[in-house]
Amino acid sequence: MKRVKKFDHNTDDFINEYVKALRENNVAVFAGAGLSVKSGYFDWKKLLEPIARKLQLDIKEEYDLAALAQYFVDNKGGVRDQLTKILTTEFNKSGISFSENHKILARLPISIFWTTNYDNLLEQALRDAGKLPDVKVTNAHLAQNISKRDAIVYKMHGDVSDLANTVLTKHEYEDYNLNRELFSNAFKADFVAKTMLFIGFSFTDPNLDYLISRIRLIQQKNTKTDYYFLKKESNKKAFNRQQIRSKSLERYGLYAIWINDYSDIEVILGEIERRYLRSSIFISGSAFEYGDFSKAKAISFINNLALELAINNFKIVTGFGMGVGTFVINGVLQAMENQKNKRLDTYVSLRPFPLVSENNKNAKDIKDGYRRSIVREAGIMIILFGNKEEDGVIKDAEGVSAEIQIANELGLKIIPIPITGYVARKTYQEVIDNYKSYYLEYPGLKPIFKKLGNKDISEREIITAIIEIVTYINYTNN
Question: pLDDT by residue (tens digit) across 50-71?
């Protein structure tokens, strides 16, 4: 199973605050060059290193990269052709694909992306996640909206499809508001309204620095909190410089999330996704028969469990397991009726398995892939029953066992209900015997888990215990 990562207090608070903002649909991401480096693109210093050499300068000593690019263009008689060729060579590399960080960001419910990058990795990741991006590169694009879009990607400095018109030199930055004022206005609106996370960005962009300072002057005491990742420098003087700079940025409401290595970003983003998904609960189970339950008692229990989860604002994910899925839906429909809410998608994600012929040589791979996509939608799994009939014999359902394995790999919190028997009972014993491996960060839940193992527990007591567990997981800081 995926091991729990312990975070320092500030990082943990950031994760919880960003998850809260995600649930309120109040987030945006700003992606800088650092986001694409892991995929194989250069950062700006490395990209402009050949230019520095041609100008007989040391790139390590150059901090104003826009000015460096301008020197190069001026040295070529004001013609940008050579600079554009360098960009074309870099951004037409083969074998470049989006990173795990791109994948996580694309899966999260983020509808606003800003980037100074020219590459199209964000757009690729969004499409791979089944989303439709509306990409804005020119002022004309801002007036044209794609129908049924899932996310907007603002490419404020241009795009790989037109590298000759990208923003890079000092003069292009100085002329930004003349040529791209609509982007400046759109950014101001999003920056004021959204909780923004800057990834792979160093805050050396003069255009963005100016925009943020103007916004903060207008807002003054109404400054909100935004975040950025900052890798600690190993050199003491450089680290001191970072600390001074970070304190300065706090005046603008920008708070550093300190990391020791860039790989930490993936870990933190992964934890954001896990915590966000914990308000979505996958009910895994199948039942040809109900063991110690009568059919009527089992139907009542499943129905009422789904009802209570729904009215407590937890979204249910179901694969429509045999003997379980129908009664889960009944409970959800009852919650909708009770709360006079007609939006089914706010309560449940229905993911019935596709019919795949057993003669299809890829049948297992198709089912496994679909099963993984279902489990990935949730952060908590409740396990009920887990049996099937095969050749007249009742046996454990391999599909439920496979879902548990996937859940452990993805870091879901699993809640087996032992009184339902079969796979659920075996998994419950595994959790109790190895409680710290499953719930290290939640020691206070162990007595409730033990209560679930009481063979005389009532339906109401089971449901109450489950609601306690999922609420504790969602609203207790790790």
Answer: 888 888 898 888 878 888 899 8
